[in-house]
Amino acid sequence: MKLSAGPRRPLGREPPFDFLSEIVRAMKTHPLYPLTFHPLYRDYVWGGETIAHCYNRANVPRRCAESWELSGLEGSASIVTNGPFEGLGLDVLTRTFGPELVGTKAPDPETFPLLIKILDAHDRLSVQVHPDAETAAALGGRPKHEMWYVLRAQAGAHLWAGVRPGADPSALREEDLVRWPTAEGDVFDILPGVAHAIGPGNLIYEVQQPSDTTYRISDWGRGRELHPEQARRALRPERAVGRSQAPESPRRDLLPRLTTPDFTFATLSLTRERFLHTTEQSFMALFCASGKATLEHAGPHPITLLPGDLALMPPAQGGTLHPLAPSQLLLSAL
User: Fold this and answer.
1) Which secondary-structure segment (H or E) carries 277?
2) Buried-most residue among 31, 149, 194, 255 (CB within 10 A)?
3) CA distance 75 to 72
């Protein structure tokens, strides 16, 4: 009997070979562990120097508008800095591990469901709007729901979010937007369809859906491209802006601040050793806003968290946080 290897594949039609994914598949015998990442920096006209100075970072652009702390977007994926997966991108890990990394509640097991940034508004951001799922599907973008936590706010700092009743959505002016004063600890929930802009003097921690789709309504005369037709279709003037201020004397160290279908956000004032754990439904992204702590876990080495550091704890894992400095504040997103 003659054995056949089956039909030959025509030359030039071999499936694409994802070298990094093959490496990770070979490493799947090693369990996931809490991960740290290199930030990715964006230099826009409204950025400043606060991120470098505040978090003692090197290799930051002189004018840095955004620091992408956690991203799985293709072409802008965060790179792991610790353990056996050092040097690999979050996109590769997500495609390889799926729900083991993103959790069972993630809408797409092969897409990391959050994008986390720090924004330094040295000047005004453009007045802009992001699409909801329906508009994004019609216009070819991705839906974007985001929230802001104010890390720092200079005296007199403010932002704009929402449209005043009676304003003409097709010709929005500054006075048509709702102006909000900002203070450290404020949380703003910016739904898709809400017109918004951030004013100077704000350092913002942003948690959002994994999208970079933005339609500019106005750019304060700086000459960058505007998107009037897309913005008109994306605007939802009836949608309200959610805002909450941190209580002066919280009764709990772990304080839920915002819960939505797209993400959950909480603050943790760490004054004692504390055990944290995740469920199979979701990961937890921990960002150190102030102080110093270590995260002990079952992975290769403990993680030291200094101001500006982020660690990603995969689903169904636990770790113990040890405070090493006073005024320890962590931000949790999942």
Assistant:
1) strand 274-277
2) 194
3) 9
- Distance (Å, whole) CA 311 – CA 155: 31
pLDDT tens-place string over residues 130-165: 999 999 999 999 999 999 999 999 999 999 999 999
Compute the distance between CA of residue 295 and CA of residue 83 in angstroms, rounded to an integer. Answer: 14
First to last CA, the chain: 59
Where residue 257 falls (left for φ over 0; alpha for ψ -120 to 50; beta otherwise) is alpha
Q: Are 180 and 243 in contact (CB under 8 A)?
A: yes
pTM over 0.70: yes
Residues 55 and 61: their CA atoms lie apart, in Å, by 14
- As a whole number of angstroms, the distance between CA 189 and CA 57 comes to 29
The answer to whether 33 and 314 have CB atoms below 8 angstroms apart is yes
State how far the Cα of 241 lies from the Cα of 218, in Å rounded to an integer. Answer: 20
* pLDDT tens digits for range 262-276: 999 999 999 999 999
CB 134 within 8 A of CB 234: no
Instruction: Tell me which amino acid residue 137 is.
Output: A
How far is it, in rounded angstroms, from Cα 174 to Cα 124?
Answer: 12
